[in-house]
Amino acid sequence: MAEKKPKFGTPPKIPGWVNYALVPLMNLLAALLISGVVIIIVGDNPIEALQVLVYGAFGYPEAIGYTLYYTTNFIFTGLAVAIAFHCGLFNIGAEGQAAIGGVGVALVCLYFDWMPTWLVIPLAMLAAAIFGAAWAYIPGYLQAKRGSHIVITTIMFNFIAASVMTYLLVEVLIDPNGQSPESRSFIESTWLPFFHSVIDMPRTPLNLSFIYALVLSGGFYFLIWHTRWGYEIRVVGQNETAAGYAGISPAKNIILAMMISGALAGFVGVNEIQGVQHRLILDFTGGYGFVGIAVALMGRNHPIGIFLAALLFGALYQGGSELAFEMKNINKEMVIVIQGLIILFSGALEHMFRPKIEAAYRRIAFPKPAEAR
Predict the structure, then answer these.
(1) 61 FRET partner, CA 20 to 30 A, in 205, 206, 265, 314?
(2) Domains (range + CATH), the chain
(3) CA–CA separation, 361 and 19 (whole Å)
């Protein structure tokens, strides 16, 4: 079927693949181009660096396992930030919500380890979601009922969460037989199964929570686009005043979106604490909550885009480690610069190429008649 021409005087509609695929791709290419210039300046070959990075992320089974392990955390935090975006909220508190979610996981694994594995695992998942949702509820309530800006309150709650973690691991949950600020190790029956214990692959941190991430991505899509709750969240995000006139409560949906966001971020604790570390430690979140902002932006707040963006950042984390090891002039800080450039172009400069790309598409897809030129 031939593409329908727009009526005269009405701007042609830009198809979804331009905004959801082409614009992020151009942002990524721009970031890689600038990264290549930086690598040349420090005295290395950018083509060789790219080859090392890709091989380090996907070149052998162990690398793939580590890449998917990092990807899992980014899916959780990307989804957490995305659902807040759909409600018109900028949740910068996924880092703190993930930390408190990890506390919930640890409490289950420490004090309910007498239960069978099949019961501990879902109980820890539930605790991660409840603790993360509870930590996000307070900023959501303050935004909805008191007008406190969500960006300010979520940033503050990141610092509060860090202080709570320090107190708990120094005064309450610290291993009595150790000196480090960490809990005792969980018994093995509370651990999440590793992939390498189920299928034939090298030993990596990849565990069952990767499946959780995929299931939650599907649930996210169904909630946002196929339920009344998701519709109300999107309406509030588009226009609170119109939502009120339609009988939709902005306050209720702001709190709901923030609680779901916190619950999703809390699953980082499932992957890290129950799946890998097997004890509660400080700073296990490792900045995943902040990178989740770039993942959501780059993925256009859609679960498929978020998965692809999370996979990209997972590859950068794993391939970047290989890059810092193999290239003589590239260290860990240089890898962080590359990651930062991608975050910069995907976030702060996200709309830099959009007007030109959309204008180019209109010129190609809808050329003006000769008499109108």
Answers:
(1) 265
(2) 45-349 (1.10.3470)
(3) 11
